[in-house]
Design a protein that fits this description.
This protein is of the alpha+beta class and 211 residues long. It has 3 helices and 12 strands. The chain has one domain (57-210): Glucose Permease (Domain IIA) (Distorted Sandwich), CATH 2.70.70.10. The protein has helices spanning 2-40, 48-54, 199-210; strands at 70-72, 79-80, 86-87, 91-95, 104-106, 111-119, 123-129, 135-144, 153-154, 159-163, 180-189, 192-196. The longest helix has 39 residues, at 2-40.
Length: 211
């Protein structure tokens, strides 16, 4: 009798696990389809498979102490006025604590550090080029991780710096806006490099990080 009861418990557990896996698999497929759909609106659907394959990590590391969190909205394409009228070419990932270096920043993919240093609009920034040729842009860093240099190979998930609020002025300008990471994705189209909306990819990676 006990063996029979144990058998049914195991069977129920296996059935539940299979159902849960199928539900999660279905949700994952739906999210991937949505990412492709959104990229197709930018005439960039061909990059969906590459981005989903090489973007392994959300760019902001979770805080193990649970004292600091991050949040983001779909602000891609909204207006900006500093430096002239322009459109926002990325997504701002904000910190729940407005304090520089409150969160670590990591590379979403493998790649080579192509750009490092100060930009008036981006503050201290890093540009990492993946093997596929996609350019990942990390801006407003408060500080780089020690040893990060131009031309260096970076592994997916490797810490590259710390969230800050640098930019909008001459080098070392800080505090012109709240602490956050500006994350952008750029691809070559013909003779020019254009930005893609990273929002849905970030949403997907954030959900995976939480789960």
């Amino acid at each position: 009798m006990k063996k029979k009861r144990f058998f049914y418990i195991i069977l129920a557990f296996i059935t539940f696990s299979c159902v849960l896996y199928c539900v999660q698999w279905k949700e994952d497929i739906e999210k991937r389809i949505n990412i492709r759909t959104q990229l197709e609106k930018q005439d960039a659907g061909i990059y969906a498979h590459i981005l989903l394959k090489e973007m392994e990590y959300f760019p902001v590391c979770p805080d193990n102490t649970k004292k600091v969190d991050y949040y983001f909205e779909n602000g891609y394409g909204t207006g900006r006025t500093y430096g002239g009228e322009r459109k926002h070419e990325g997504i701002d990932i904000m910190s729940s604590v407005n304090k520089p270096r409150c969160l670590k920043i990591r590379s979403v993919s493998d790649g080579i550090v192509e750009k490092k240093g100060w930009l008036e609009l981006g503050g201290y920034r890093l540009g990492i080029r993946s093997k596929s040729g996609i350019y990942y842009y990390y801006a407003h860093l408060d500080q780089y991780k020690d040893g990060i240099e131009q031309g260096q190979h970076i592994d997916a998930g490797e810490v590259i710096g710390y969230m800050g609020n640098t930019g909008y002025g001459p080098e070392v300008t800080k505090g012109q806006f709240d602490v956050h990471l500006h994350f952008g994705i750029y691809v070559d189209k013909g003779d020019s490099e254009v930005s893609l909306n990273p929002y849905y990819l970030l949403e997907y990676l954030s959900d995976k990080q939480i789960n």
